[in-house]
């Protein structure tokens, strides 16, 4: 089922268009599912020593992702609506582009 915010085993997942992947928070954050708000801010960085230099800092408020100025991707300083995405029953992200590719292959 497509949703903007998924809960699987107390991990809440949302799709980040800036990083083009899923970000997750646990139930230690304040999460209001009915109005799609998470607080405090969410900071995602690459592991030390990684070649990837991801820095994504955002607030989730009323179904919108507010990217802060210290992000290093194209949505830095921008607010955009959350995107619906699909997760399998075991909590895996279902990539719609990969699923479309598999369909074309058959």
| Sequence of strands across the biggest β-sheet | 5-6-7-8-9
- Number of β-strand runs: 11
Q: Which stretches are low in confidence, meaning pLDDT under 50 for 5 or more residues running?
A: 98-106
Order of helices and strands: EEEEEEEEEEEH
Counting H and I runs of at least 4 residues, what is the number of helices? 1
Describe what is shown at a glance.
It is built from one helix and eleven strands. With 106 residues, the protein is mostly beta strands.
Folded structure, characterized:
The protein is mainly beta. It has one domain (2-105). 9% of the residues lie in helices and 45% in strands. The chain contains 1 helix and 11 strands; from the N terminus they run βββββββββββα. A 5-stranded antiparallel β-sheet has the order 5-6-7-8-9, with no helix packed on it. The protein has a 3-stranded antiparallel β-sheet with strand order 1-10-11. It has a 3-stranded antiparallel β-sheet with strand order 2-3-4, with no helix packed on it. The protein is globular.
């Amino acid at each position: 089922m497509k949703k903007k915010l998924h809960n699987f085993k107390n991990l809440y997942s949302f799709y980040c268009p800036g990083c083009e992947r899923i970000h997750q928070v646990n139930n230690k954050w304040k999460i209001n599912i009915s109005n799609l708000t998470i607080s405090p801010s969410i900071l995602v960085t690459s592991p030390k020593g990684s070649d990837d230099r991801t820095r994504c800092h955002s607030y989730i408020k009323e179904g919108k992702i507010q990217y802060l100025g210290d992000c290093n991707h194209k949505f830095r300083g921008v607010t955009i609506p959350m995107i619906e995405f699909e997760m399998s029953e075991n909590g895996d992200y279902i990539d719609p582009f990969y699923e479309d590719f598999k369909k074309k292959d058959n």
